[in-house]
Amino acid sequence: MSENIYPNHRSILDREFRTIYSGEVTTLNYLTTATANEFSLIVNFVDPLVEYDRFGKIQPALATEWSVSEDGLVWTFKLRPGVKWVTYDGEIYGFVTAQDFVDGLKYVLTSENRSKTANIVYNMIKNAKEYYNKEITDFNQVGVKALDKYTLQYTLIKPIPYFLSTLTYTCFFPANGQFIKDVGGKFGIDNKHILYNGSYIMKTYEPHHRRILEKNPHYWDKENVYIDRISMTYNKEANVLAPEMFLRGEIDHVNIGSDIIYEWMRDEKKKNLIRPNRTNFFSYFYSFNFNPNFSEEYEPENWKIVVNNRNFRKSIFHALDRKAAMLTEEPYEPENRLLNTITPKGFVSVGGVDYTDLQPLREFTQKDSFNIELALAYKKKAMKELRGKATFPVKVLMPYNAASKQWANRAQVIKYQLERILGKDYIEVIIEANPPTGFLEKVRNSGKYGLMELNWGADFADPETYTHPFRRDSTFSWIHLAEGNGKEDGLTIYENLLQKAMEEVEDINKRYLLFAEAESYLIEEAFVIPYSVGGGGYSASRINPFEISYSPFGATSGRFKGLRLLKRPMNIEEYKKELYKWQMERKGQFEGGRE
Amino acid sequence: MIKYIFFKILQSIFTLFLVITIVFVLMRSMPVEGYLGEDYDKLDQVQKEVIIESLGLRDPIHVQLKKFYNRIIAGDLGVSITYRPGVPVADILKSKIPYSLGIGLTSLAISFVSGINLGIIMAENSGKILNKLGNIYIVATNAIPAAIYYILLQFYLTDIFKLPMLFYADRPISWILPILSLSLGTTASYALWMKRYMADELNKDYVKLAISKGMKMKDVIKKHVFINAFVPMVQYLPASILFTISGSIYVESLYSIPGMGGLLVEAIQRQDTTLVEAIVLIYSFIGIMGMLFGDIFMALLDPRIKFGKSEGRI
User: pTM for the complete prediction?
Assistant: First the structure.
């Protein structure tokens, strides 16, 4: 519409970043929220003990050095002296001390505060669960102590190799006890009810209207903050308006959705303004349900019989054309989003080898699961084995959340492509739109599906984090109910593999190999079909995505610290060059080391 | 009339009570997952229980209802649960209502005045070009979905007149387009109804009588027809005025106006029961008040309308 194509605009202030957002935060209370949207704003206001740099390497932040005891249970941190707490109007409130970390955890573990991240803390810190459950009332017994003004000590329940990474979670962030007391129940309700020690202060916060962030002049690392002011304007229709606003030079960053990407790619001028987004560490996969609880019309009893047949599962595993499904949202480079394992590539590595390249996981990493020949071979076997036991065609109930247009598109594609390959004599895929309200509870957790797309994001830097959906206590797909999953000591084969991996806390190499073995088992048995990673898509932006703090979980990837504004947006070719450069530099950083 | 009003108020209180009770019970019967929002998966059983219990959601429904009534009677709208946890609902509403009210009232005033005038002009020029133009405008605003012409206005007019694309409270120039967008549809409907009532009146015998007695058409319209046609228009005016506080979902979303539009929908989606109840309470109150004032206004303007049986039939 507008003739003004970006580079013509010269009025842009070089140290101000302007953006539009469509999801408002509900709170700034970083001690209670567990929502990524809120994390990514708050990390600009409060610093953690350690932070991730642009290669995903842990760097000192509020802690300058740390050590762990022989038995791996006691972690001691030396804090950076002289870091200031500042109020929203820029007044110095006091200094950040070890006690602030204790006070923060005390708030999280006080159940009346309804912290949604309390479990992260009490599953690691000694006596934390007891305090949360009110079995003990003396907080001094909880495993967090201020040894002196600048020395902080955590005592863990068990050795946790990835403990450092969890400190980037906002529940471990410091909070001034006196301030919390002063503001009472209002801690974090808006910009005036938190203290700042991070790179930015939120001067203005008008929910559903705008936020203005200004560089914190008292920040300990202000040399590494290059953007002076960030103005974020709320707009619910951002996906419609923001592209035009970007072209008019009114904003500096916009996501180009799959609905308009064709138009931008066709226009030479516009095409030159966009670049791919980086993918994130959300893992999407298709799971078979071993606890079918859906309506009789979809024949749950029949489903129970067929889903316990390995060949049936494998026929679907190989017939699922993941690329075709991905084309609905990533029409240009769908391969970049596909994932052949549950744990995403680049999540963790050991000795310079990516976790997904460890044996036996490497077998899956290297090839696409889609294979028509194999699918038909397994179909033949399954039909033979199930003859007389199950009725064909099998009704495959595949529900989706009606709020997601892309999910709906995907479900359509998968239905027709599975039925085409495997034949309607074998399966009938039933796609079912469900209302978004209470979707997970009503559909997934109630077992009202046969095959369904599920997802999980990482909580800490260890492959263990991606095993959660497959455990007995999860309500994802009840794999432990699968027949022929061999039981030893009441545990399934998978649970035994998992237990062995989790018990290995000293030799990281061995630990990762054991997790890789467990994950391979899940895929080999076709309990689950890996699908993709989240994120992706395209943006027009003055941000260089390779300067962003690189962390697969927690919070720090929303930080503006360390970012410089580009004179003009990066295009696709430049992105590819930068990506290659980044990958090479990163390799150098991790060679021989573990992360 | 006083008796009538008193009776109406009693009836209104009962209706209000019924509405908020039904909404309360309905909201409480929604799945508890909703209170935990998108963080649901990351919580363990213990935490879910602690959170739900501390919100008082495990109490029997009559206990919850009793607490709710006590709170409402004390004039406390409660604290938001999920929309902005910990923030008093009254504060949320206080920050939003002025935006919707300001934009809504301005646009209502514009559409009322221009709609009524347009209606009169159209009635006076029945069959002529002005009437036809008016009809085109009315049909167009009714036939084209508002969502479409809103966005076209926003894209083109901001580009042509170099106006800001979004609303900024401190830049009055940015208020023009949202107000204009809101006025277009309502102006058309006021014009349409005014024209209709005028046409009805113009066909009545008293008009013919007045003309035959030698009065000028212009005077008949000004002195008799207008006021008679205007009375039914007034009935819904109080409700329209009061309902401006509910804002406009689409105009507010398009221009980033932090008003009330869409708040109820979002509160329901996020299952923020206290917020939903407060909004429903306010909207029902307004609805009832709007009708009451409408009746009173009509009675004041039209002496033929009487309340109460003893004063004769309406």
Answer: 0.86
